[in-house]
Amino acid sequence: MSQTETISDKDQSQTDEDRPIIVKGARVHNLKDIDVEIPRNKMTVVTGVSGSGKSSLAFDTIYAEGQRRYVESLSSYARQFLERMDKPDVDFMQGISPAMAIQQKTTSSNPRSTVGTTTEIYDYMRLLYARIGHTISPKSGKEVKKDTTKTAIEELHNQFDEGTKFYVLFSIPEHKEKRLEDELRVLKEKGYPRLLHIDDESILDLTTDDVDPDDINPKNYRVLVDRLILKDDDDTRTRIAGSLETAFQEGSGRCSVKIRDGKELNFSERFERDGMEFTEPKPQMFSFNNPFGACDKCEGFGKVSGIDEDLVIPDPEETIRNGAIAPYSGEKFSKHLRDLIKVSARYSLPIDTPYQELDDEVKEIIWEGKDEYIGIRPFFEEVKSQSYKVHMRVFYSRYRGYSRCP
Amino acid sequence: MRKDALYVKINDKHIGEVAEMTIGHARDFFENLELSEFEKEVAEQVLFEIRKRLKYLDEVGLSYLTLNRLAKTLSGGEAQRISLANSLGSSLIGSLYVLDEPTIGLHPRDNDRLINILKSLRDIGNTVLVVEHDPEMIKAADNIIDIGPFAGVHGGEVVFSGSYDNLLEANTLTGKYLSGRKEIPVPEKRRKGSGKTITLKGAMENNLKSLDVDFPLEKLICVTGVSGSGKSTLVHDTLYAAIQNQMGTYNDEIGKHRKVTGTNYIDSVEMVDQSPIGRSSRSNPATYTKAFDGIRDLFANTRQSKIMGYEPGHFSFNVPGGRCEACQGEGIQKIEMQFMADIELTCEECGGKRYRKDVLQVKYRGKNIHDVLNMSVSEAIEFFVDEERITNKLQTLEDVGLGYLKLGQSAPTLSGGEAQRVKLAKFLSKSAGDSTLYFFDEPTTGLHFEDIAKLLDSFNELVNNGHTVIIIEHNLDVIKCADHIIDIGPEGGFAGGQIVATGTPEEIAEVEESYTGQYLQEVL
């Protein structure tokens, strides 16, 4: 004991930097009361023949003690969730830092865990996509954007010169249970009595003109909010903004601007383009572990089980006649092969050509069937339907595989 | 991934496309993103984190992995290197990192990169402790602790501690091998083999580029290549699975290939991998190699046993009779603690001796059956010296370098490398005769030079007995001793999957494009 004290006294005087990790009297497993000193901030290799006690020293002594001391420092509440650790059989150990073991273990057997998720790269990617990703419409290949009054005004200034006259409009609201007559009445009560015909720009006034609702095709008319002239001064800007805002509000997120004797521009506060509504990117949307983001079919697994084409046609260089289709090679199902040959003769299909050189049309017949020939896919459907029989189940499982989720 | 999530793109790529990239490609992608000023500000932090992580993953030699590669399909070494990259990313300082043989499964080319990473971990202010056999790693260390001199009870002492230069002078096994005073010799002659081959045609699973490969029989064949080049896919998933399938043994998935010929020249195939030899704590090296049967007979034939009427069965701890019934012969009792970890206590009844008191009275040369189970293999060989039936089986364990194992050590406590060698020992003890094709996946994992030398002897014995051995290996000492090398590459992942060279080690060393060849040149 006196020896240990002198060591610690001596070390107190040294700076942290060069105070080594000292192990004295380690007897874990087969270690024979050994003393070791490991210099700090250096790379130390422990070597020796297998079974000599390298791991006993590195893991079961030094790492275990580091881990144990760390756990001891936690509150008793936290400790109850951790495994109780035994003190390694050592006389004295000093200078242990918080220890981290990097072992050769596959850390998780979770089928959803990937390289991207374990390294957290994927989490950051989700965030990145949610923040700066551009939603591209699959129809036009153009970006989907949300319009605001501000972007709408900018758009107008970009496209048109000052002094351009235009109308701020929104579509006639359509509710399921309401008739057009009622809709028009509500509009009138709200203070939007004027309708603009989209083509000839004639204005109908619901208060003064006598309108028969049946004559109005709501597709051709818009509700007029304001008539304005484009100018780049604060007053006009405020007025345009106000009108657009009203139009957005009344048109439940959508409005349009019609240039006098010109085209109509559509704006939407919703996230949509080309008539499709898109979901605004959120980090959860990109997670295949979250029902919000996962594919409906494979639940984010990326693979679906089904018949594996490579198992059915194990050697694409074989011809049909020589048994390229493996499930037909057995005695029991050779009937289907004979059917196929009959059908092939009728339509003069090339059954002596290697499978891989066949046209897609011929493959289609092979897979989907024609006349009395059943086809591989319907054949397996039939097999599947008889899966209460053990041999059918075994047969089916021979050709089952995971294929990529469509 | 749902559809609308895929409409969201950055630089024309949706998140699914990015996830399919390899780490190397993804790194390029994120380094070269073109963003507007506004986006740059928003993304700066996030991009920094992504780039940093990708950089470390690339540096630990994993650039061939795709981001959506499932974690459970990673090899142990790959998983270890990912967690290494993660720790680098966390940039903690003042900690102690303890690593368990990080070079396992790495081609020599990747070793240098790994060493640099460990050095950078040290340089930012951490202490690094590595358990390792790799000469390069030992050379790079600031301080070396050599434990030995031998295994098990003959080890456990510090035989050397100090710098690399001093180790070279030191009179330890490691020192002798490193300084070249002792070495695994390059065989003078390569075996000719039987002239017959097994031929695999059109292998195209994963990254394999429709390979046609010949495996000459009755030779020691080494399949080499950098990590991720497709070695395991070729040998494990395709050749082994296909042969098994032809032999009619059930196998679930077979790698894509056109055909395999020549399987009629062999009688059986055996895969000797690092999976545990049994989850049961009742299995141990003695029972696995069947040496225990002989030992039990021996005890049953002692005079004492005959007086008491004991049969061999009384000396088994797996059937009722002679075993302690309180712990059913396990020597420990497990107490389940509900939500806490199970507690293992030494059995009170037998005091951990696994047998009934009266059975323990039976002694053979002064030792009872429990004492025998506590012997190491080496000790047991000396102890049973006249009993050939037992020593024959135990000798094979000794030959594969497992002399230090205790006969009664339960199977789940064996390391992967140990389990593999116990299996190997079992095959070695089998009588020769049929021609068997053996597969080994990195058998030198976790082995010291001395152990590798022993292992090579075992391989040579197998081949000399008319068997064929196919090894996937990175260790140059094994590669240089092979009769035939198949080098896959040139790089990992998509840039691999081709045959770079085949032939004897001397022929491979001539091939400039082969990384393995370059390293072979140095050792031949």
Largest interface chains and counts: A-B, 93 and 110 residues
Estimate the mean pLDDT confidence of chain B.
83
Low-confidence stretches of chain B: none
Beta-strand content bin of chain A: 15-25%
Q: Please tally the β strands of chain B and state the result.
A: 17
Q: Order of strands across the widest beta sheet of chain A?
A: 9-8-10-7-11-12
- Tally of helical runs of chain A: 13
- Global structural class of chain A: alpha+beta
Word description of this protein:
The complex is a heterodimer of chains A (406) and B (524). Helices cover 33% and strands 18% of the residues of chain A. With 406 residues, chain A is an alpha+beta fold. In chain A, the strands form four sheets. Chain A has a six-stranded antiparallel sheet with strand order 9-8-10-7-11-12, covered by helices on one side. In chain A, strands 2-1-4 form a three-stranded antiparallel sheet, covered by helices on one side. Chain A starts with a helix and ends with a strand. With 524 residues, chain B is α/β, with parallel strands linked by helices. In chain B, 39% of the residues lie in helices and 17% in strands. In chain B, strands 11-14-15-9-16-17 form a six-stranded mixed sheet, sandwiched between helices. In chain B, β3, α6 and β4 form a beta-alpha-beta unit. The longest helix of chain B is centred in the first third of the chain and has 23 residues. Classes of the chains: A alpha+beta (406), B alpha/beta (524).
What keywords describe this structure?
heterodimer, A: about 400 residues, flat, B: alpha/beta
